[in-house]
Design goal:
Length: about 230
């Protein structure tokens, strides 16, 4: 009853998402065993890059977990996980530099990041409501509920699409910063790219899944209106 031709593409996109997550873990584990020539830890790389960009007031903190690394825009803090903070590996310095890239975006009021921050309160609300509206609309056969659910879900999809340039830009900044400051060699550049590109692919897959789901809901809504 709920099967739609776009479901086939959604299944493929889910497969891509699983593959991307596997690739992130695989690449991180692979390059976690390859030490960077700089001899610096993820925390040291982050601190040096922040200072070299005038962000002396942005602290670098240790956070528990694996791949839980992030930049907190509210507290203006770079947080690095167990496997990154004290590690001298290619994987660790790549992730650390990526988070610094977000801190620099914040300091420069990078357009896509500013938009993402402004969208967050709205998306935080709509993401929790949209599934219930859509489910209720399908179960009750209510086009009004489905239409409202589509509007709310559209905000979620827009947020994911805006996230893409933010993540790709942070990775690009990370690699350029490490090269310009001499923290990685030309031979290490390819390894850094593999770590960063794998992580970015997970965001692409997630956005693709949501976009296809949105198209499916719109198609069902349009068909219901015609009938």
């Amino acid at each position: 009853m709920f099967f739609h031709p776009l479901d086939f593409l959604i299944i493929i996109a889910f497969g891509l998402s699983l593959w991307a997550q596997f690739r992130v873990k695989g690449n991180f584990e692979k390059y976690a065993g390859v030490y960077a020539s700089s001899g610096l830890t993820g925390a040291e790389i982050a601190r040096n890059l922040l200072d070299q960009n005038g962000l002396y007031d942005v602290p670098v903190e240790h956070i528990r977990g694996s791949l839980t690394d992030h930049y907190d825009p509210m507290r203006k803090t770079v947080r690095l996980s167990d496997s990154v903070y004290g590690s001298q590996s290619i994987a660790a310095v790549s992730v650390a530099a990526h988070e610094v890239g977000h801190a620099i975006q914040h300091s420069e009021a990078y357009g896509a990041l500013v938009l993402r921050h402004k969208m967050f309160p709205i998306v935080n609300f709509t993401s929790g409501i949209a599934p219930f509206l859509l489910l209720g609309g399908f179960l009750l056969g209510s086009l009004n509920l489905i239409g409202l659910g589509i509007i709310f879900f559209s905000a979620v999809v827009a947020f994911q699409l805006v996230t893409l340039p933010v993540e790709f830009n942070a990775s690009s900044r990370a690699k350029q910063l490490m090269i310009s400051e001499g923290y990685i060699t030309n031979a290490e550049e390819r390894s850094v790219s593999r770590v960063l590109n794998a992580a970015a692919l997970t965001y692409v897959a997630a956005a693709l899944i949501s976009l296809l789901q949105l198209f499916k809901f719109i198609a069902i809504f349009s068909q219901g209106n015609r009938e």
